[in-house]
Amino acid sequence: MHLKIEPYAQFLYNVPVMADSSYSVLNRKNFYVEDGLVNKGKGRNIGVDITFEKYLTRGLYYMVTASVFDSRYCGGDGVWHNSRYNRNFIVNGLIGKEWTFGRNKQNVLGLNLKLTLQGGDRYSPVDEAATLSHPDKEVQYDESKAFSKQFSPMFLTNVSASYKINRNKVSHEFAVQSANTTGYKEYYGHRYNTKKNIIEPDRQAVSIFNVSYKIQF
Predict the structure, then answer these.
(1) pLDDT > 70: what percent of the chain?
(2) Reported pTM
(3) How many CB atoms lie within 10 A of CB 17?
(4) What is the DSSP letter of 76?
(5) Which residues are bridge partners to 173 per DSSP?
(6) Which among 32, 93, 138, 166 counts the fewest CB atoms within 10 Å?
(7) DSSP at 168
(8) Distance between CA atoms of 87 and 90, rounded to whole angstroms?
(9) Cα–Cα distance between 119 and 150 in angstroms, integer?
């Protein structure tokens, strides 16, 4: 077994920001901006990472990781805000088991499960008056309170199973993987619902189910 505790502190300077705005490239989603930027921003990340791991023994392994952190930035407005990625905590649990089969125990069946609990997505409050007065009803945000809001914690599950057949000169592996099995809906911003005439969060679930076959010579 292995236990590791890592406190850390990171300080960022000369970060590109937009003058008199809460905008900072530290939060960017798009790969380009149309406005001029100045290197006057700052950022800081402070936290502690904890890892407890049991190495593979008799076909069983597991690992628990936890991270508690605070991620903030200072934009062109000179105000410190929560960053887009300031979830405050993330806890991961991973466990797997392997069984051997065959005359020489050369074939391996493996099952793996990963559970994740983490703080919810950060977002800026919606400026309803500015949104409703916009000709295209494009959602406007109160950037003076950038990323001050946060959704409830999110829970994710990933599951995988594999069976590997080992031969003298070749091996075959069949695997099934399911990502985001619980179907958690990720936040992509707010939007104006023209049917209901309301402003609502745009949240979508991306669940991936994958079947694969791999041959190794």
Answers:
(1) 100
(2) 0.84
(3) 25
(4) T
(5) 164, 214
(6) 32
(7) S
(8) 7
(9) 8
